[in-house]
Amino acid sequence: MEARLDHLVCWVADPAVSLGFYERVVGLPGVRAEEFREGRAGFPSVRVADGTILDLMPYESARGVDEGTGVRGTAGHPLNHFCLAVNREDFDALQVRLKQNEIEVTGTGTNSFGARGIAPETIYFPDPDGNVIEVRYYE
């Protein structure tokens, strides 16, 4: 079986702040952003790739999500990190935006193995809620 990742849920304190961070700093386009801002969607998302989104779920929704999955204790559970693969130009542009927004790059790596082989460079940085984002490029 081959599957594609549909979505990840990131727990956030303030979805509006997180949406702004992912749109403005990381450079990912918002999904249901206007609906969220108008109160017609409970949370916003950002598009990672065709067919893959990152849901920015408010902590206060944790109980309902636990009930929805049927697995107790999973809502609000942190993830170690998630990784976005971008092209080299976007990788370089992201580093400029991180610096402009005073977001600290907390880790770096070289020749790191991933889904597409070996990535020459990778960086790690936190979002406003402490979720760790890894970004890399492949040649």
Automatic annotation (TrEMBL):
UniProt cross-references to InterPro entries, sorted A to Z: Glyas_Bleomycin-R_OHBP_Dase (IPR029068), Glyas_Fos-R_dOase_dom (IPR004360), GlyoxalaseI/FosfomycinResist (IPR050383), VOC_core (IPR037523)
Keyword annotations of the record: Dioxygenase, Oxidoreductase
Domain VOC: 4-138
GO molecular function, one term: dioxygenase activity
Pfam families: Glyoxalase
Gene3D superfamilies the record matches: 2,3-Dihydroxybiphenyl 1,2-Dioxygenase, domain 1
Protein name from the UniProt record: Catechol 2,3-dioxygenase
Organism: Nonomuraea wenchangensis
